[in-house]
Amino acid sequence: MSATTAPAAHDAPAIDSNTWDDPARRAPLVTGGLGFRGITDGVCGVVEAPQPPRAWFVAFGASLVFLAILGLMLGYLIITGVGVWGNKSPVFWGWPIVNFVFWVGIGHAGTLISAILYLFRQKWRTGINRAAEAMTIFAVICAGLYPGVHIGRVWAAYYLFPLPNQMDMWPQFRSPLMWDVFAVNTYLTVSALFWYMGLVPDLATLRDRAPTRLRQVLYGFFALGWRGSNRHWHRYERAYLILAALATPLVLSVHSVVSFDFATSQIPGWHTTIFPPYFVAGAIFSGFAMVVTLLVPARKLFGLEHFITMRHLENMNKIILTTGCMVGLAYGTEFFIAAYSGNPLEQFAFLARARAHFGWAYLSMIFCNVVVPQLFWFKKLRTNVWVMFVACIFVNIGMWFERFVIIVTSLTADFLPAAWDYYTPTWVDILTFAGTFGLFMTLFLLFCRFLPMIAISEVKGVLPHEHPDLGFHHDDHGAGAGHGHAKPAEVTP
Amino acid sequence: MSTATLDHAKQAAAAAEAAAPKHAGLLLEFETPAALMKAAEQVRDAGFSKWDCHTPYPVHGLDRCMGIQPTILPWIVLGGGLTGCTLGLILQAYTNGIELPVSLMQAENGVIRELLAPFLPSGYPYVVSGKPIFSIPANIPVMFELTILLSAFAAFFGMWGLNMLPRFHHPVFTSARFKRATNDRFFISIEAEDPRYDRQRTRALADGLGAAHVEELVA
Q: What is the mean pLDDT of residues A47-67?
């Protein structure tokens, strides 16, 4: 295969040269021959540059405009009432819930990368976990917005929580919506803790390199006085492992619980046991697609190609291919079960979903989620940034349509034909959704500018000279075969 | 006037004495993790207890070289998880399944009623879809989420607590070279408070550990 053409590690590898398939030759996770200092400089350089790239300003300006639109739409909604949305009988769960599920799904990749891949010792996660976790938190914030405003009386949002009150009124814990409150809030909290904990050693790096006093104080405050103590690292690593072990069932539970919102109801097309695994696979699928969508431009813009290498992107594309096939299998299984169940309502719901008024949405979903990812069977295509960028945008669109199809088609034609109706979103629905992208991108761009996008300390820990047993005996880092640790290469003198 | 000047001078002298750099220990700098690990073994064998290694990333195997005992953190997390699980069960059983404080408040004993009423809101049991007032299966998701949440809190805050962080002042921060401990250098610090610490002898030991640079820390 391509192993014969793969350049040796000491050939001063070009940026994208680590995608060979020969398992006997482990591919480097950081290219460009960077040593410890090269890694620090490369990552901190983004934050310490006097000015971000011009493209950053353009993107940030556009994001702020959409953020402002979101503010206006939410203000209009709160002043006027939920009638400004397209939600009406029989579709009371329109775009707000579609978008909620869409954003929660996107928020699954980060914790998957940081927790599940950590437990499986997938060391390539270190290049992408920081940005993916940040993206997760921002996506969950966007998601959390929707239930908050969907309740109509926003000022009573605290009813979602079991707070003691003079009416002795409590949430009903037998409702999956209540489980959702706990699942999403726990997920947001644990993801944020995990993310911040990972950030602390890197914030200390930024503190120690800070060019200005203000930065030193700010980064220093959030670095909590971290001094790289090995006694601290010992507990830190144990806490990291425990958090990963806790976050793994958590990330699987969140979209399972979201799917319970549907699966425990009696609406045909929702009332199916396949929903939890199917939703989780879809969430990972859409989450990775969003990570690729964000990181392909970001690595180029901030010059992080040595850290987020082509191999990282290729690995993510393989996961997208896998989960895309799982989602495709779930679509097929749903139809099979509907046919096999002998339940006419179920059969009707699925046939109507694919063939009736919303057939166009169903076809878009199948095309984007099942057909497009098949491109990634071909190595040429899955290692081409343009192909993967476009394909992942298709996946994002397709996963939005999946939620739309599930929610809207099942509600438009339920048990009572007299109540059937078509569903159309209003301009407020559309602009609010566009606005959440503004919120998401604003947060992400601020993150890129002010925090280290790559987990510096974690990347240093997976350098080949840290693990001479992995077959890097002939690289230019001077790793001695017989000795556990060798002098790190210093790229910048 | 002269007494005032004298007092002032006295105060200044006292302040200067207080501010005079106090010897706080030694800081050894190494260029590679291998050199650090070798030196750490020797410091460990010399019997020091108040000493530490400082590395830009967790160096695996260094725990053994330093003789660090496994942390008790997992037990703290277990405690957090059990608390969360129990809390989730009690929360749901109480709010949806029990009317206990109401019966207390209807009690003859006015003292209990007066004491409890303002602080203890009643639960609110009601029947949904003919299901039992209280049943475990419907309560598992919330119990699970609270188990995870409190375990994560225990892991996160427990770790910082055991590490005694945040702590913004430490003698190692007085060294300008120490800034590279978060970048590309590896350090050993030995604190003067260690019972085995002796300024001359420890310095001699430090000089023999193959460090690239040895300096004295001030506090």
A: 93
Residue A322 in domain: yes
Number of separate domains in chain A: 1
Question: Is A392 among the domain residues?
Answer: yes
State ipTM: 0.86
Residues of A in contact with B53 (CB under 8 A): 229-230
* A126 part of contact set with chain B, CB < 8 Å: no
Domain of A456, CATH number, reads: 1.20.1630.10
Cα B36 from Cα B8, distance rounded (Å):
49
* Local confidence band at A111 (pLDDT 50, 70, 90 cut-offs): confident
Work out the minimum CA distance from B119 to partner chain A, whole angstroms. 9
**Number of neighbours of residue B64 by Cβ within 10 angstroms:** 12
Enumerate residues 311 to 370 of chain A having a beta carbon within 8 A of any beta carbon in chain B.
none
Residues of A in contact with B58 (CB under 8 A): 230, 233-234, 236-237, 457, 461
Q: A440-468: per-residue pLDDT in tens?
A: 999 999 999 999 999 999 998 888 765 44
- Among A186, A208, A487, select the one facing B148 at the smallest CB separation: A186
Residue A136 CA from chain centroid, whole number: 5
What DSSP designation does A463 have? Answer: S
Q: State the residue range of the domain holding A423.
A: 36-491
Coil, helix or strand at residue A75: helix
Residues of chain B in contact with residue A40, where contact means CB-CB under 8 angstroms, are: 56, 182-184
Does residue A81 fall inside a structural domain?
A: yes
Assess if residue A13 is contained within a domain.
no
Query: Is A220's CB within 8 Å of B180's CB?
Result: no
Q: Which residues of A touch B158 (CB under 8 A)?
A: 239
- What would the mean pLDDT of A481-491 be, rounded to a whole number? 38
Query: How far, in Å, are A337, A349, A370, A476, B13 from residue A367 at the CA level?
Result: 22, 20, 6, 47, 82
